[in-house]
Structure formats: structure tokens, C-alpha cells
Amino acid sequence: MPQSLQFLQLPTMRTFLVIWLGQMVSTIGSFMTVFALTIWVWDKTGSATALALVGFFAQLPRLLITTFAGIAVDRYDRRLLMLIAEVVAFLCTLAVALLYLTQQLQVWHLYIIVALYGGFGQLQVLAYSTSIALLVPQEQYTRAESLGSAVNYSAAIFAPALAGFLYPRFGLQSIFWIDLATFIASFVTLLIVRIPRTSIEKTVDDHQETLWQKLTFGFRYIWANPSLTAMAIAFTLFAIPNDISKALYSPMILARTGGDSEILGAVTTAAGIGGVIGALLLGAWGGFKRRIHGMLLGFAGYGFFRTILGLGQTLPVWIVAHFLAAALIPMFYSSSNAIWYTKVPPALQGRVLAADQLIGVTISTIAPLIAGFLADQVFEPAMRPTGSLAPIFGNFFGTRIGSGITLLFVSMSICTVIVGILGYSVRSLRRVEDLIPDSSQS
């Protein structure tokens, strides 16, 4: 039997696969609601700011709760924490549905509800990710992570299509009921499984440890190990330009097509399909034996195809480039996470991964603000016919509206290529899998 099929037949994988299926169903339902509410907010306000604020309030509590969630994940039953998060998500969706059905739903209601949803959603993400090392054999971490990637990309493909079909025909309420049903399905899958408990490993006595020491444990653990520090720095240096370019992606395509949303939809769908296919191929292959290759080569390859996306001038080029770029995302995320799962003891993963994720959450919150400022105030004016950068880059990017955004997008994409290549010059990063013993051996 092929190794990829043996992976699915392992008895130790059954619990993971049950949870994974529940998360798949629930995520599709949640994505449908998000998509439909985005349309509803736009129809009601016509304001891009209102939409941006919904995203901001969903993200803000993740900044505040991540370190506390890390402590909770290491100390309490991870299945119970996931169940609590599912209940809160169910109640949030139910509240929106009841407000909508009674014609009382206002945009400001969503700010409060998505804040609750985002905070407990981060708790669930941490509880789920730190459960992988307890449920999956070490050699299968990359495959398990690739299945996780397939969840989000599948939802990104199917949820907008389903919601786009149902919303104009049956109204927003039909999507709420589907979402609530998916929450119940996910809740049931969590009820019927058991996730092993971990024993808390204490570096100092709990009674002597201050709250600040508990909150900063993950950061101190990473900083104490040069290779883990190199991993965190490398991903940070990748995430900053990548998140800036992600914020520029939609405006860039719309500016270069005269606001054609159908073209934007086609290119975005291609990326979703690429992500699913990339995750499935990675699951069948299992990834590089040395996972650091999957991370660094993934950075470089992803940045290369994103550069082609920015330089491209036609729809076929955009579709192919974005498809190939997205196909590599599961490789570098899964490879990186597999290293963390292998090297950090399961009893510490909640706090350590929380620290690592908090860096990413902070970047993803700030990067759009940086992108907007650089695009509107620096690069767009500089790429106008009389701008300072037009004589240098005008022949490549033009001097019309959107040229500055495109230049910034390409520049950020090239930066991600450089991070991937230069990562090999850092010994503590390149040899992370040799320099840190596996947690099972320590």
C-alpha cells in the first residue's frame, strides 16, 4: 500500500481524522456566513471602512488573548477548550441570525460579535494545532498539516460559491441555518473523540511564577534556543512583506482591470484551487525529509510566482501565477509547523506556539495599515508621470493608476524570495533539525 494511504489507515490517525472532518464542515459554514455578511454590510453601508472595521474587530482580540490562550491550552483539556470555542461560535452566529430575523441587526452589532468570535476562535486554533503532536506520529506531521491547509482552501473555494447561490435566492437566514448545522456537526465530532492529556512541565514552581513570567514563557523559551529564534525571525521576515503584498493584491488587480470584479474572482478562485491541490499533493508526497527545505524553498518559490503575478499583464498569466504560488503555501506552512511540533515538547506547545503565532497576528494586523500608507502616500504618487520613480520603473510598470501599487507588490514579493534564499546562509536555521533534539528524545 502507498505510504500516503498507510497514513490514513493508521489507528492513531482516526481521532485526528474525525476532528479534521468536523473542522472542514464547520469552516465551510463559517466562510459562507462571512461571505454573506460581507455582502450584507456593503449593501447596507456602501462603505469600505465599515468592512475594514469588521475585520479589525475580528483580529484585535487575537492580539489580546493569544498568550493567555497558550497558557490555557497547556493546562486544560484541549478537547474541552475546542468544545467551548464551538459553543461560543454557535451562540455568536445564533445571535446574528436572531437580530437579522427581527430586523434589528446593525453593523455595530457585528463589531462586538466578531470580536467574541475571533477571540475564542484563536483559542480553538491553538488547541487544535497543539493536539496534532498528541494524535499524529511524528513522521506524519507534514501530512497532517497539509490536511489542515486543505480545510481553509476548500472553504475558500466552495463557501463563496454556495453563499453566492443561496443569498439572493433564499436570503441571509438560509446561510445562518446551514452554518449553525455545521457547528453542531463539528461539536458532535469533538464529543465522540478523546485527545490525550499532557503533564505540565514546570521550569519554576507555579506559586513562585508571576503572571508576567507565565505570559512571556513562550517568548523566553524561543529566545533561549538560537535555532528556534532563527525560525521565528525567518518567518517574521517573510510575513512582513508577504502580508503587505496580500493587502495590495485586490487593489492591484482591480486597478489594472478597471475595477473588474469578475477577473478578481477568477484569479482568486485559481489561488484557492492551487492551495487545495498543493495540500493534497503534499499529503500524498509527505514533503521533504528535511523539513527546513520545504520552508525555505517554499518561501522562495512562492515569492517567485507572486513576482510573476505582479509583472503579468494578462488574465491567463495572473491565473497560472497565483495558482502556482498558492500551491506552495501548504508546503512552507506545513514544513515549518512540523518542525515546531517535533522540537517542542507537547506539554509546552500551547505557550510556545502562542508566542510564535502572536508575532504573526501582530504583523497581519499592522501590515494592511503599512501597505495602505505606502501605496497611497508614497508609491502611487511616485509612479505618476511626473513622479520620482517614474523615470526608473515607468517602462516596466507604466505610470497609470495602480502602477505604484504594482511596484510595491512586486518589491515585497522579491523580498520573500530573498528571505528563502538567505535563510540557507544562517547555520542555526539551516541545521535546525540537527541542532535541536526531537522532543521525544529529550
TrEMBL record:
Residues 1-198 form the Major facilitator superfamily (MFS) profile domain. InterPro entries: MFS_dom, MFS_trans_sf, TM_effector. PROSITE patterns: MFS. Keywords: Cell membrane, Membrane, Transmembrane, Transmembrane helix, Transport. The chain crosses the membrane at residues 16-42, 48-73, 80-102, 108-135, 147-168, 174-193, 221-240, 263-285, 292-309, 315-333, 353-375, 401-424. It is a multi-pass membrane protein. It holds the Pfam family MFS_3. It is found in: Cell membrane. PANTHER family: MACROLIDE-EFFLUX PROTEIN, MAJOR FACILITATOR SUPERFAMILY (MFS) PROFILE DOMAIN-CONTAINING PROTEIN. This is MFS transporter. It comes from Nostoc favosum CHAB5714.
